[in-house]
Write a structure and sequence with these properties.
Strand order of the largest sheet: 3-6-1-8
Shape: globular
Order of helices and strands: HEEEEEEEE
Distance between the termini: 43 Å
Structural class: mainly beta
Helix content: 10-25%
Largest sheet: 4 strands, antiparallel
Number of strands: 8
Number of helices: 1
């Protein structure tokens, strides 16, 4: 009778591990949709720095994208949205790699004027 109890506990532990990731069973890696969250609405462009291992590709969701490697684990990204609007892009990560850390470097409005503050800006990732 003790052996079935051990299997029950093991099954419960494995089920809780699956719940930690939303119960989908999907691991890190693959394609992520990235969105610039702006406290000011429509934006004309953004400069970002993505840092972390495993970035395989970066593609524009809308607008024009320019990238430049800054180091083996860091990439500078500029996205231009004309006319101004939501800024989105896709990042493909190597298997087992979570989305990269993102630092917002600069944001410009629809008139190509730099925003005076970066407070409230962030990039969120989803599947």
């Amino acid at each position: 009778m003790r052996i079935p109890a051990i299997f029950t506990v093991l099954a419960a532990v494995l089920a809780l591990g699956a719940c930690e990731r939303g119960g989908t069973g999907l691991g890190d890696g693959g394609e992520y949709r990235a969105v610039l969250e702006s406290p000011n609405g429509a934006e004309g462009a953004v400069a970002l720095e993505l840092t972390g291992p495993g970035v395989e590709s970066i593609e524009a969701g809308t607008g024009t994208l320019h990238t430049q490697p800054a180091s083996p684990t860091s990439t500078r990204v500029v996205l231009i949205q004309e006319p101004a609007g939501p800024i989105e892009f896709r990042v493909t990560m190597a298997a087992g790699q979570a989305p990269p850390a993102v630092r917002v470097v600069e944001v410009v409005d629809g008139s190509d004027q730099p925003r005076p503050s970066l407070d409230g800006y962030r990039v969120t990732f989803s599947r």
